[in-house]
Structure formats: structure tokens, C-alpha cells
Design goal:
Layout: H1 3-48
């Protein structure tokens, strides 16, 4: 392998490695936002759950 080809392969491998790391960071950021929105949605839905009230008194006449 020529010196120029070795240098080109080394640069390619470094760029590939950097690109893969950026992709992982993007995925982590997206997952963090998704997880935050999911928590907010779950809190909202908890408020909408039907409340069951049982009464021991008889209100009929």
C-alpha cells in the first residue's frame, strides 16, 4: 500500500468514527426528548382517568 493510500484510509477511518459518534449523540438527544414528552403525556393522562367514588349512604327516598 502506498503512503498516500494509507493516509487516505486512516483519514477515512477517523471520519467514519467521528460520524458514528455524532449519530449516537443525536439518538441519545432524541430519546431524551421523547422520554420527557412521554412523562408529560402520562401525567396528563393520569389526570383524565375516571375517578370512582363509592358512597355508603343511601340517597334514595
Amino acid at each position: 500500500m502506498l503512503k498516500n493510500e494509507k493516509l487516505r484510509k486512516k483519514e477515512y477511518d477517523e471520519m467514519k468514527k467521528i460520524g458514528e459518534l455524532a449519530g449516537i449523540n443525536d439518538l441519545i438527544a432524541v430519546y431524551g426528548e421523547y422520554n420527557k414528552e412521554l412523562k408529560i403525556s402520562n401525567e396528563y393522562l393520569k389526570e383524565l382517568e375516571p375517578k370512582i367514588i363509592l358512597s355508603t349512604t343511601n340517597n334514595t327516598i
